[in-house]
Amino acid sequence: MPDKHLSTQFDSELTSVSSQVMEMGGLVESQILGAMKALAHFSLESADEVAAAEARVNAMEIEIDRDLSSIIARRQPTARDLRLLIAISKTTANLERVGDEAAKIARMVRSIIEAGAPRALPTLELRYAGELASGLLNKALDAFARLDVNAALSILKEDDEIDREFDGFVRILITYMMEDPRTISASLDLLFLAKAIERIGDHAKNIAEFIIYVVKGEDVRHSSIDQVEQAIQ
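The structure assignment produced for this chain is given below.
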């Protein structure tokens, strides 16, 4: 009976910290959407809202890490439970970095606006890539909540599409700068902005890899898709 009681308490603590991660994920997703809105409309107000959320995201990371440390110290979990707690910690760190990338995008949009750069800048492809990255993060969080390894595999495959969008956008920017050298400064801002979006996709991919680690006990970082497929069979 005492063991059951302790197990129930442990499950409750896991549920609580998992809920905190999902809340943090929702906040970070809103940052990405805000950053894309700032880019689409060259809106200083939207850019400022993204930047303002950064402090809350950072505070949530510290709070979750503190709770995880307490759980590990008191419960001394093993096997899958320990892998889950480690994965939650790593997921939280990746979410914080996504928040950093969203804030970086907001700052770059502000820079473009304040520099008086033309609104004819090629941002459509960039906004599409941003939607892909935001969608990928949403799928990663959903898959993490369900510990769905098949969904995780799908996310790893989708990340390649964001990489292709980045490569295509770089080619567009080079052409744009060659045609009008006056846009070089603003175009370079967009290039760094595109890289930030690509990194958001990378962080979503990392979260997907943590799911496989929890469920299968396999570290699939730096593995090919074929190797990942073998690991989840």
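Interim note for the steering committee: Residues 2-41 form the longest helix (40 residues). Helices lie at 2-41, 44-75, 79-114, 124-146, 149-179, 184-216, 225-232.
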